[in-house]
Amino acid sequence: MTAKTTLVTGFLGSGKTTTLLHLLAHKPADERWAVLVNEFGEIGIDGALLADSGAFLKEIPGGCMCCVNGLPMQVGLNSLLLRGRPDRLLIEPTGLGHPKEILRLLASPFYESWINLQATLCLLDARQLSDARYTDNENFRDQLAAADIIIANKQDSYAPRDRELLAAWARDHGGERPIIGATRGDISSCCWTVRGATCGNCPRNAPPRRPRRQNRSGRPQPARQCRLAPCVEPRPGV
Fold this sequence. Notes:
7 helices; 8-stranded parallel β-sheet; alpha/beta; 238 residues
């Protein structure tokens, strides 16, 4: 049995651990889940909640899960897979690390029979887009670039300017990736697995629409927009 594996990334303060807690609270009773986190998370994951939900927890000491060349990351991952035999594995790396190395490890032939790598989520607080301390940070940019799905978290705190910046970022850097709005990490787990369908559970209030632009022929064409998708697809081939 291979574990459906989701990497939940995001810069410090984006709400990764809160999102994990929400997902754990809605775990199907007939599934076994495992969680791999850094020892120093934004919010401590309550062991009682894990016990009640039937999930296994493994903390990587030192707060540097992205250093996959070190033994703690691989030992912790192997321990969860062997001990828990989970149906789903959630991984939360440090908010200061680059997920590229973790994704490379998870996609390696060694874990082919153990892991079914699904979409990588990146939590983004759009208020950070107005602060050069974030936007000029290489890790901040790289985490967003590595993600398959962007979760625009804490959207209940956005000012109109934050929504405009989010729409601009999506136009310039989002490509065709869906952007899902969320408050306190409240996203639907069906967004990991449902392909090409609408679940009706994910927030839909999108940032302001951009005006239509003109191509070289002078005819208007739709501008690329930030879309808060009702549903998302996993990685191709999953």
